[in-house]
Amino acid sequence: MNHQAELRLQAWLDGELPPGGAQAVAAWVQRDPEAAALARELGATKTALLGNEPERALPESREFYWSKIERELAPAEAPAPAHGRPAWLRGWVKFLAPAGILVILALLLFGPMLRSHHRPTLASTAEVESPLDDISSFTFDSESEGMTVIWVNTE
User: Using an 8 Å Cβ cutoff, are 39 and 6 in contact?
Assistant: First the structure.
């Protein structure tokens, strides 16, 4: 017997089936010994539960009991945080925060263009002399590529 058949048998015992469906399940229980055994077992369980279920009495009315539960579940409103800063300082912070963001964006966008015009060239750097006579070097500076290559020969 599959799970759907067991559920249908349980619905029949609980009186939840329409009249046509209830008659079909009743005929099925009379024909099938396995269905009849399950029906007897479920009926005995239902009777045992109905007769022995403890009754709970509430100390207050039903509405008051559920309103207490609802109040506990409702989120408490958080108090508004007190600002420790004076009003004039809050005004400046509201102005400086967006202004600071704009300055950072401008530096990110226009910074590479500003740095390319002020890049030190090899001619503006100090020359370094080597105390060794057998070392020679060759320097290549490319303004268009923005790079300097120094070849050092130790032979």
Answer: no
- Which conformational region is residue 15 in: left (phi greater than 0), alpha (psi within -120 to 50 degrees), or beta? left
- Of 150, 105, 103, 104, the residue nearest 128 (C-alpha): 150
What's the distance, CA 91 to chain centroid? 34
Question: How many CB atoms lie under 10 A from the CB of residue 12?
Answer: 21
**Contact status, residue 9 vs residue 26, Cβ threshold 8 Å:** no
Enter the tokens of residue 84: 């420790």
Please report the pLDDT score of residue 66 as a whole number. 84
Query: What is the 3 state secondary structure string of the chain?
Result: CCHHHHHHHHHHHCCCCCHHHHHHHHHHHHHCHHHHHHHHHHHHHHHHHHHHCCCCCCCCCHHHHHHHHHHHHCCCCCCCCCCCCCHHHHHHHHHHHHHHHHHHHHHHHHHHHHHHHCCCCHHHCCCCCCCCCCCEEEEEEECCCCEEEEEEECC
pTM over 0.85, yes/no:
no
- Is the pLDDT higher at 91 or at 66? 66
